[in-house]
Amino acid sequence: MTSSARMFMCLVLIVGLMAAAYFLAFKPRQERLAAAKVEIRQKSDQLAQLDKALASQSSLADETKKLQRALAIFEQKLPEQKEMDKILTEVSQTAEKNGLTVKSVRTLKPVLGERYSEQPIRMEISGPFKPGFYQFLATVEGMQRITRINELSLQKDPKVEGQATANFVLTVFFDSGQKSAG
User: What's the CA angle centered on 160, arms 158 and 161, to 5 degrees?
Assistant: First the structure.
């Protein structure tokens, strides 16, 4: 063999070793490195999400405590069902203090709930519109107990100026006696 043939074979052998090294070592390593970078990016994103979740968890605990305190205050304003007659008396006295006459009071079917219930009461009252009805509504709104007035119908008395008759449903919220856990 001549020296040029040996050199050529050596060159082919070196190029072959370089190609083999590229396909057997460098290329698989590059692919694993790229996959590892993708995995690191995904794990970093997950870690960032977990950090956010942990940060919001402490704020959720604070918010839960605030809501529990608000619920306790709300429940203190709920009378027991046996106290409903006291509330009816209070509403009737409020109407009379404002110069209104209670014409009728009829309790409707209670709406039972899990933590509280509603007792709707249909009432008809009459008397001077000003300041009677306005003051009556303001006083009922400011009561310690939680109430709501629905279906308010107000008619002017055609015979007497300034007089009116109101038909409405007064809903009184009360403690249903059923406490749920949590």
Answer: 90
